[in-house]
């Protein structure tokens, strides 16, 4: 069967962009496998990796490159004023960005080809936090992307599906020479930096609603300078009062500390296993807290085990 061409606007033949009813995919694993991947949502990979240098491998590579270029262009255009006739529009939300990234992750995972998966997944994981933090957060889609990345890396690091323990395509002879120590070190760096960045991102975003509630006061500042000064004084008093209330709940010796030091203590006391820092954290936000804590959780476990015990090239 001839290989059809790849189009970024249509489903890629051969099963790499899964259509509603794919007929050209290699024989999938038993149907029960689809129920063992609820957390990741990734498709089942093809049975064997694409042959290096083959026409199909090159088509997948070009498709991924084009999609990454499109994502980058849409990200850049987010900061530009739209022009009539623009074929590519900037992203308007994190949801739009995450949708494109997830589709690309599905294609890479479905390819079952480590020589494509490893470098492109590392590049996506490196760039995604920078793209993401330019938008107001949309936790469901954001964490969905991170779960897929975590699943991919944890599986590739072990050469087996992290849930089913099935050997991955391309790892029939083990992990040696497939995912190198250089790959692992880079992966570890990306993972650790991402966790810190998302902690800061989510902490900053939690403060945004408070700022928005003060918009009326800011409008009054523009109308009358005198009233503005009074409003500023009232706002400052309110903020100080709030800080004092928070300090009394967490400080053991408030009189002996400056407010900055007290805030730092509160942040340290609220630090959980994930390192998430937020002095305003509330009980109803526990699910969100745990989602942040689980970013790249499986990948970190795999990296810790492998880097300490193996002699990889």
UniProtKB/TrEMBL annotation:
Residues 212-254 have a biased composition (Acidic residues). Residues 1-54, 206-279 are annotated as: Disordered. Residues 1-40 have a biased composition (Low complexity). It comes from the Eukaryota. GO terms for cellular component: transcription factor TFIIH holo complex. PANTHER family: ADR380WP (PTHR37781:SF1), TFIIH COMPLEX SUBUNIT (PTHR37781). This is Meiotic recombination protein DMC1. It comes from Coniella lustricola.
């Amino acid at each position: 069967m001839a290989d059809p061409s790849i189009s970024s606007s249509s489903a890629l033949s051969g099963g790499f962009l899964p259509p509603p009813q794919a007929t050209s995919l290699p024989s999938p694993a038993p149907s029960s496998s689809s129920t063992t991947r609820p957390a990741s949502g990734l498709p089942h990979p093809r049975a064997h990796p694409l042959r290096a240098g083959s026409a199909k491998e090159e088509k997948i590579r070009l498709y991924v490159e084009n999609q990454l270029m499109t994502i980058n262009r849409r990200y850049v255009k987010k900061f530009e004023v739209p022009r009539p006739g623009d074929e590519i529009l900037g992203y308007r939300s994190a949801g739009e960005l995450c949708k494109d990234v997830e589709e690309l992750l599905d294609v890479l995972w479905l390819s079952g080809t480590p020589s494509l998966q490893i470098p492109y997944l590392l590049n996506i994981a490196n760039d995604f936090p920078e793209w993401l933090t330019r938008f107001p957060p949309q936790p469901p889609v954001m964490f969905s992307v991170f779960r897929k990345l975590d699943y991919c890396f944890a599986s590739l690091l072990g050469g087996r599906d992290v849930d089913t323990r099935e050997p991955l395509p391309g790892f029939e002879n083990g992990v040696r020479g497939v995912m190198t120590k250089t790959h692992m070190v880079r992966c570890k760096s990306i993972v650790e930096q991402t966790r810190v960045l998302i902690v800061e991102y989510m902490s900053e975003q939690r403060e945004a609603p408070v700022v928005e509630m003060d918009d009326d006061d800011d409008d009054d500042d523009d109308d009358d300078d005198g009233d503005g000064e009074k409003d500023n004084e009232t706002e400052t008093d309110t903020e100080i009062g709030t800080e004092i209330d928070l300090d009394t709940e967490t400080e053991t010796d408030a009189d002996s500390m400056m407010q900055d030091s007290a805030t730092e203590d509160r942040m340290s006391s609220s630090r959980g296993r994930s390192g998430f820092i937020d002095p305003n954290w509330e009980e109803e936000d526990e699910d969100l807290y745990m989602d942040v804590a689980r970013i790249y959780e499986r990948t970190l476990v795999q990296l810790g085990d492998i880097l300490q015990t193996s002699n990889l090239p």
